Here is the input.
Amino acid sequence: MDTILPASGGFTADPMTPRPFLVTKRRKELSDTFTLELSAADGKPFAFKPGQFNMVYAFGVGEAPISISGDPDQPETLVHTIRAVGKATDALGMLAEGDMVGVRGPYGNPWPVEEAYGDDVVFVAGGVGLAPLRPAIYRVLTERERFGRVVIYYGARTPEDMLFRKELQAWRARFDVSVHVTVDRVTGKWGGKVGVVTQLIKSGGFDRHASTAFVCGPEVMMRYSAEALVERGLAKTDVWLSMERNMKCAVGICGHCQLGGSFVCKDGPVYRYDVIEKPMAVWEL
Amino acid sequence: MGNSNDGVRGVMGRDGLDGLIVLLREAGYETIGPRARDGAVTYEAVESAADLPWGVAEEQAGGRYRLTEDASNAAFAHTVGPQSWKKYLYPPRQTLWTGERTGKGFTIESPAPEPKPYAFIGARACELAAVAIQDKVFGYAPHHGRAVGQQQFADSGYVRRRGAAFFVAVDCRRSADTCFCCSMGGGPAAESGFDLRLSELIGDGRHEFLIEVGSERGRAIFDRLGARPATTADVAAAKAQTQAAAAMQTKGMPQGAAALLADNLEHPQWAKVAERCLNCANCTMVCPTCFCSTVEDVTDLTGDKVERARRWDSCFTMDFSYIHGGGIRQSGQSRYRQWMTHKLSHWEEQFGTSGCTGCGRCVTWCPVGIDIREETAAIAAAPKNKQA
Here is the structure.
């Protein structure tokens, strides 16, 4: 049997064969959420666009589709922020620095950051949905002069469930970004807002006629956020969501991620709201 | 696609089939054809024409399949059984790769490809249509679905096996009650996608095979068969047989199913069919175009040696749509709707073709005899949303 050698560039020779990466750093984020920093075993950088995802493989256990949470302008480090919710993600959570994982990707359509040039940019995140948005936030902040106002709305279940808390504070401290945070439920010390993230959208703070919104979180939160944005005056074509479905291949041949006529892995995961609005509303589609 | 072999036809006797199988085996092919086994016609290795199911036909209806005797003693009196060529081109379980732990890391090896190319003997028009559909799904042929212009991937194993395979098509001389290829736009005569095409000519004391060339490599085999030139009468006799088979198809798929189903995703008929559907997944297992798969990770006792395999999966299982927190399609009706709307409607959007060829396997092998034609007709009779 021949050993498959990873091809250069993002993809391995066969789309189902992973490329080896080493864990260079592991950081605990929340009680069930952690971040892995990875570097390719062959030392080559991993180019990706904000919003794309990888299939990340834990040896002998399995793969899971995980969005990339790092900076697209620093492709030498691949960053994944992962919530342990199953066999594969539990196994990834037990890895230590120096351990190896397999990576296939990057897959999927990205957040179309360029389409927001000249506009205000609105990020709406719920829970760990902040992770897939972070590469887009990094990109917008890198190209800050190309955009109007930059607004981040973030909702978490409790203060303890707030992801990237220090980073949110750092962004909030900037004069050119406004960050609004809310929690569903107060636990411990919390002096901030309480309520769902859609209430923050209603408070405005962006140009209703020249804004692009990127929304990521639980499906029901995205639906109501998109509705609130449209109610606020945004065109449906300026609102983008990232969908989540079961995935086994990520290349459109396993069939698991179908959502009506589209494959979330390659037609998504990022969709324009007007394209996905109807399928999203169909029960158990 | 036109080629210099258009219209090259010959006629060979009943013994000619043996010669054909021998020539294909000499050319390095593993010959696969129909055999009567365990009360059904299945697709297995055949070493000579004696292995074929001479004189075996069958009766089919919703939830029913019985072998019967064919008085004409034809080699291809049967229609389609529970299997399709899919099991060879897209095996039910394939090793994607094997791996071994090395210190803190691991190495990955790809499996060896199949040693021999396949020659399929007895592929029907609906089955060639199914292969043409899977060609689009697995990246062997371009498609015009919505994903064009986005990321496209090919299933390298399928592409390799498909490219090497030799197809000997057979025209159908009869239709089962479950057959509806005519209403899906193909058959019962095989018009394209074959290397050689057979029509079994029986009647007036003759039992011969009309053989037609469909490709260069088909021509190479044909030239060594020693068939006599075909006459217009031979061609007309073959055509009369397929026309007779077509006339036997009385129940078709209602036209416009793709738009109809897309407009009726929340029709009350889904709940009605769910009352009968057992969620057994038989329809997806016998379907020659269903392509969904899952992956399995297997380790040895030490945990140091692993295998990652791809296995046929079905949208009727609860696991199929599982994401953390639970499956998307919790109810039987949403799983049946997924299968049928994908097959007849969303497939068009994805790959620019229907996913159904009218082979009728899903009707026959459904334990409770749910008929995809009847389910479509029920919605067509009372559409909840009028088509735009």
